[in-house]
Amino acid sequence: MKISKRVLSGIQPTASMVHLGNYLGAMRHFLELSKESESLFCVVDLHALTTVKDSEALKNNCRSLTAAYLSIGLDPNAVTLFQQSHIPEVCELAWYLGCQLSSSTLEKAHAYKDAKASGRTVNAGTMYYPLLMAADILLYKATAIPVGADQKQHIEVARDIAQAFNFHFGDVFPLPEPLIPEEGAQVVGLDGRKMSKSYDNYIGLFEEPKKITKKIKSILTDSKTGEEKKDPESCAVFKLYRLFASAAETENLAERYREGGLGYGHAKLELAELVLAQIEPIQASWHDWMSRPDDMADLLKEGAAKARQIAGETLAETREKLGVGL
Ligand code: AMP
Ligand code: TRP
Q1: Could you report the per-residue pLDDT of 47-68, keeping only the tens digit for each?
Q2: What was the pLDDT predicted at 3?
Q3: What distances in angstroms separate CA 58 from CA 16, 152, 177, one per listed residue?
Q4: What spacing in Å lies between the alpha carbon of 246 and ligand 1's midpoint?
Q5: Is the CB of 201 under 6 A from ligand 1?
Q6: Contacting residues for 305 by C-beta, under 8 A, at least 6 apart
Q7: Protein residue with its CA nearest to atom 12 in ligand 1
């Protein structure tokens, strides 16, 4: 079980493109981590089945997300980039892990409780979601899991399962740790709540620059006039700005908020300029990858071969400990 740091994370292909919350809260850190540690990143299409009921949309979402991973600069030769459903071993492991977990843990999970509270019918996949996520992590014996703050509880479930398994059957799984960035743990959306597909308050990373500017102009602020002094910390425009700006630029804007004399309209234009300049090369690369679906399919195939090697070894070890499949 001796593993030095192994990084793994996944994103659900539930939308036609990722948003700035995904980028700033998770993906930007994937890139930094991939430069210093062995890393695996996946398109978790099996998880997306809990909500996506349209096969064409799912395929398009998977392509868009794969292109997003590549366009932020992940080097497919250095990292293992793959699609969850290409590794069927993950479902088998999820079953074994489910047998080590009390069902009440799944019933208490935030995401499941929120889905139930919404009044909609909740499918069983939504309840098993943390179990499949634990299997994603433990199948590759990953130890460092970069995610936004909303995923912390899921990683705790994975740790609990690993501990229970190791206790009963002997050490197989290292305990995974969440890596939650201080900056960007919870990126705010246009209305000041957490940026999310489900709140429709997001800025898509690959949206047209004009649309992005329009969305930024629509960010909700209080009604202070240009002359009035403002509190940067309570303003969504500032909160987004600081995620893109240098420390000096951030301090400069904060100072102008506090002094008064800066209107929100002006701050929004500065934010739009900064965001667009930074994402322009990512957008260009994404469009380029999207025009080469066959190249992306080849890369995913290579990634799956690498991932499957590790998955096969873990599963063989797990089966032996459990006494099945012998
Ligand atoms: P999802 O779109 O739910 O699959 O999320 C993919 C990744 O983006 C996860 O690591 C989330 O924690 C992260 N994420 C999603 N929305 C936000 C947000 N508003 N702020 C920070 N991180 C986020
Ligand atoms: N649940 C994660 C999310 O919604 C996605 C995910 C699935 C994941 N499997 C994972 C994240 C494994 C990290 C590691 O964002």
Answers
A1: 999 999 999 999 999 999 999 9
A2: 53
A3: 9, 26, 30
A4: 23
A5: no
A6: none
A7: 148
Query: So what's the pLDDT on residue 82?
Result: 98
> Does residue 177 contact residue 195 with C-beta atoms inside 8 Å?
no
Ligand nearest to the CA of 147: 1
pLDDT at 4: 74
- Residue 178: in which H helix or E strand, if any? strand 177-179
Cβ of 151 less than 6 Å from ligand 1: yes
Which of 11, 22, 194 for mutating ligand 1's site (highest number of atoms within 8 Å of CB)? 22
CB 25 within 8 A of CB 208: no
User: SS3 sequence, 229-292?
Assistant: CCCHHHCHHHHHHHHHCCHHHHHHHHHHHHHCCCCHHHHHHHHHHHHHHHHHHHHHHHHHHHCC
Q: From ligand 2's centre to the CA of 154, what distance in Å?
A: 8
Low-confidence ranges of the chain (pLDDT < 70): 1-3
